[in-house]
Every structure is written in structure tokens, then in C-alpha cells.
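Late entry, iron/sulfur cluster complex.
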Amino acid sequence: MTAVDLRVAQRPNAPMTTYRYDEYDAAFVSERVAEFREQVNRRLSGALTEEEFRPFRLMNGLYLQLHAYMLRVAIPYGTLTARQMRRLADIADKWDKGYGHFTTRQNLQYNWPKLVDTPDILESLADVEMHAIQTSGNCIRNVTADHFAGVAPDEIEDPRPTAEFLRQWSSLHSEFSFLPRKFKIAVTGAEHDRAAILVHDIGLRIVKNDEGEIGYQVVVGGGLGRSPFIGKVVGEFVPREDLLAFLEAILRVYNRFGRRDNKYKARVKILVHEKGIDEIRAAVEAEFAAMDRTVFAHDAEEFERIAAFFAPPPYDSLPATSALLRAAKLETPAFANFVDVNVGAHKIPGYAIVTVSLKPIGAVPGDASSDQMRVLADASERFGFGELRVSHEQNIILPHVKQDDLFALWRMLDAAGLATANAGLVSDIISCPGLDYCSLATARSIPIAQAISKRFSDMSRQRRIGKLGVKISGCINACGHHHVGAIGILGLEKKGQESYQITLGGDPTFSASIGEILGPGVTAEQVPDVVEHLVDYYLAEREEGEAFIDTWRRIGHARFKDVLRREGEDGADI
Amino acid sequence: MPVFKHPQILIASNLTDGEVVFLGPSGWERDHRRARIARKADEATALEALGKCDISANRVVDVYLADVEIGSDGAPTPLHYREKMRVKGPSVRLDLGKQAGEGAL
Ligand code: HEM
Ligand code: SF4
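Prediction complete; structure with ligand written out below:
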């Protein structure tokens, strides 16, 4: 028995499609919990002031928000087991208010934990190999990955071993625990980018060279926030054995030159922008050439050890298409719509990838009740090897469902209010918590998402409109990705009122672009009207097969601006 | 010192559970209508000083003054929409927070 088999055997209820902690990991996490318990006690006794305590609490994912504390739990590369999902539900019931919020960074946020309960919550998480480390602070944050990892037909390689490899390296790296600012890394192994790698501090794209060897295209300096940038290529092809050394070279250059004097200029994107990618590339290459790389000699071996955890589940061999599925679609139109919109092709014949939308019409994007979490855990066990994924679009994925089982799964989801067939459509809105929860917010974002969702509640109209990314942030920090929304909405304060700035043309994929401002800010009530006018104009102008973003690119921003101006003059309520 | 334009109350977060609290006549209250109102600049300064004491005593964190208007019943209502949210709870979950009668000290 290999070490991996042994560890899996010790946990009979755990599927082996994700990383399992070894003793070292487990000890590390439980030490951190014990340490934090001690820190909380010292805070409560007054031995630590808030200034002294704040860095410790942030290092453990605990924020102070508008109405209460908020705990951010990491879901590394978005992969969860059924057991972990159930634990998240239990924590929500025991220590929070019966729900959680799935975020764009593959985290889960609890909105109401008490400071005094947090050590118990962390202990309960550690018990299922979860934690809140590196969800905050100026360190390398939770590494995110394509949520279709390991199952997408367009994939060169599963990005999760890489993400886990990076997580282990970065978790322990004292040199990089006090970076000038937080640092976010995303990985994709596919031809289509579902992980928004071009808007991360470092984006990794797994590629194959002409010799058929696997390596990484390394992109640096992307980011959203106050000053959005698309990342630039710093390494065209970095072989796997050099990856960590190359990333360390980047981080060292950043550590050396990154601006610590001004929080708003401290991200690596500003450094890349100010110095230019050529200078950065030269500095990284020089650093890489000069560094002692013997410490990385065992990287390839370690990578293989990790990769073994992500072995595919024991799939059955099945025909490529399912007669049962075809029949059920004919019989039940609502199911057919669900399959057409939320179900994607799988690389294994006879299987499918299912997106469970956490955006029912009028609901809070990304919120799931503890009951829904349990239904999802059950569904994954009945129909998908007990594995779930969290997408950066704030939805849940069941990555390995037999096509034959889709109808039964749909009925189960439908009964729990989880069968909304809107993945990728106009009501599948990304929204940050905004002023309903966040202490940094300048305006609310969730009610805007709800209003747009309700405006487009006619599902057949949504399908006619097709793929359209609406993304909303409640302040300039851009946690809701508004810069890369085909329609982006940013909540601001104008003369003591909430005001919304609309941008068009954002795109988070390999064809990345930052949205352009449409015009002066509008009120909350006006936002759904504006969105509707924009959508109607697109429908009138689009050519065969064009998504909103394609039409916008073809006919140009000015035409969309004009429409709004004309509508305004005609006395419409804009 | 900022110009004193409106009456003010002192807002904070309770250390142990993060609940939003308001300095009242005798200690922290979870209902803003029971907050002590500063009607002059020196009264506001006095409220702030009391707040600082309770920061040192590890009772509350994140303490600040918020502008209010005073209703016919004499109770204060925050002027800014951010603090209006804080005295109620999330506008998208009317079943949670102070607006739902939750929370206690
Ligand atoms: C509620 C507490 C939150 C706080 C205090 C917070 C704080 C911040 C700040 C200060 C920034 C700007 C960083 C910079 O530009 O240097 C930021 C960016 C960001 N946050 Fe949050 N955030 C919160 C919630 C969230 C949530 C709920 C999500 C996911 C939905 C999220 C995901 C992101 C993303 C994706 C960015 C922009 C990407 C980038 O860093 O360039 N944050 N956040
Ligand atoms: S964008 Fe602003 S309002 Fe939204 S979660 Fe981030 S910091 Fe809060």
C-alpha cells in the first residue's frame, strides 16, 4: 500500500478525489487553532488591545463588519467533500444564523459569528480539514482554480495539484507572510479560462509545448480594486520543476520593489504598471538565474505525491449519450431547460458537469441555507462521488454526475429550490455583500442584484438574451468583479445617497478587458431600467451567434451610450 | 476639530459578539433610541471620552460619533444611510438583526 492508499484507507468515508491532510498538515492547523484560542482569551481578558489583536484575528479570517463579526473560511481550489459541506451547514446552525455566503474567491463567509465562539468554529473546521488561514492579511491568499478542474473536456491538466502544491509552499513561507499587500494566485489548466487568471496578482495557465511537455504560462500584475489591470505574461513557458523557483523570483522582486509607503499602490499590479513588464521580466529572470535552486530539487517528486490525491473517481464505462436523459428531456420541458443551461459536457463518456445556481430569482447571490447545504451534500453522495465545487461565480458544481441520473438529481434539487436554470444568464449575477454586511461599502449591492433578477424573471426571455455577465460591487474594492462584467455595476456614495456607476465591456476570460464607464451615476431604482434598455438594444443589434460582449465590441461603446442618452430625452425614466 | 452640525450619538461594536451598540445614559445599549444624545460639541467630546474608556476596558471596539436627527418622541435616528443600516440589520434579511428583535447584551 502506498502512503496515499494508506491515508485513504484510514478515512473510509472520504473520496480520494481531493487532497487529504497528512500528520504535518493536521498538526499545523490544530496548532493554529490552539494559538488563536489563546489569543482570543488574552483579548477578552484585556491582555491584548484591539490593535494588537487585529492582525491575529485577520490571520484567522475573522473580520469586524457592519452588524457583527464575519468569518471567512477557505475552500482551497473550490473543492469540498460532502462531509465538509455538512460541517459547514452544522456550523451555520450551531454558531451562526443558519446560512452562509459563497464568495467570488472560493470562500464561505459566515455573517454572524461571535468572537467568543470563533475558536470552537475553527476547531470544528479543522476536524474536517478546513481552516480560515490566509483568507486575510498581506500574505499569499487561498489559491483559486477552475471549478471544472479535472472534468472539463477542454483541459490539458487538472489545475488542482498545482493549486495544492502552491498552497503548501505559500502556507509556510515566512519570507512571504509580510508582503507589501495581499497576493492572489489563480490556476487554470483549460483552453477556456473559468478562473479569471488575468485579473489575479499571478495567473497560471497550464500549457503544453511543441515537445508535448507540460509547463506554465505565468501572468503577473492583474487585479481589480481601485485600479484594475489585466495581467501580463512574465514567463511564456516555465517547466514544472522550475515553477516554485520562478514564483519565488517574482515574489522577491515584488518584495524588494513593491511600494510599502502607500496602501493603494502596494499591489504587484502597480509595480508592473509603473516599471513595465519588460523591466519586471528582466528582474525576475536575473533573480531566477542568481538564486540557489537546490532547495527546489525535490519539487517534482512532491508534486507527484500531491497529484496522486487528485486521481479521478471510479467512473463506470458508459455510452457517450443517455437514452434516459433524452426521454426525460422530451417529457419535462423545465428539466430540458435545466440541462440546456446548467449542465455541461464532461470529459468522461456518459457523465456530465452540473452547475447548481445559488441565484434563484430575487434571492441573495451566493447565499445558501444550512438545509440547502445538506441537500447539496446528499446530492453529491447519491449522484457524484461525494464531491462538490464552489465556483467564483458563487455557484455550486457537482462535477461528476451520470447523464442517466440527471433527472433524479434535478427533481431533488428542484424540491430544495436549487434548480434555477440560469447558469451564465443575466440573472446569474455576481454580487459582493455590499452595504448589507460590509463595513467598507459605499452602497448596497445585493438589492440591486435582486431587482435585476426580478426584472428578468421570465426565464425564456433570459435564454433568448443568452450569456451575459452582470457583476456588482458595493465599493471601489471591486470584490464583486464589476470591472470584468459585460455589464458592471459599482455602488458609490453621491451627495449622501447611494449611486450606481455602470460599465460595459468587461471580460474575465483569456480575452480579458476592463469595462468602460457608460455615463453619470444612476439611482438604485433606475439600475434595472438601464440594464433592460441596454439588453434590448443589444437584442436589436446583435448578429447571429453574438453574445452581449461581442455586439458591444463590434458596434462600440459610443452606440450604447447614445441609446441611453436618447432614451433619456424621450422622457424615459433614466 | 470637525464642525458640529447635527446632534450626535456614539456607536460601537460589542467586543465579545460584534453586536452594534450605542452609548446610553448608563452603559451600552443595543437599541439606538436609548442612546445619549450630544447636542453640543463639548457633549460630543465627552461621549467620545467615555467611549475611549470602554475601549481601554475591552468592552467595545470601533467607536465613533454619528450624526442624528431627533424625532418628535425625542429619539435619535441616524442621518447617514450607513448608520441607518447599522441600527436595523441587513435590508435583504428583514428576519435578522435588530430589526427582527435579535441580539441582547
Ligand atoms: C466583507 C468583507 C470584505 C472586505 C473587508 C474586503 C476588502 C477588500 C479590499 C480592501 C480589497 C481591495 C484590495 C486592493 O485593491 O488592494 C478587496 C478586493 C477584492 N476582494 Fe474583498 N473584501 C471583503 C469581502 C469580499 C468578498 C465577499 C469577496 C468575494 C465575493 C471578496 C473578493 C475580493 C476580490 C475578488 C477583490 C478584487 C480582486 C483584487 O484583489 O484585485 N472580498 N477586498
Ligand atoms: S467591494 Fe467593497 S462593499 Fe463589496 S465586499 Fe468588497 S469591500 Fe465590501
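Chain A touches chain B at residues 43-46, 49-50, 64-69, 97, 111-116, 364, 435-437, 441, 444, 446-447, 450, 496-498 (CB under 8 Å). Will revisit in the morning.
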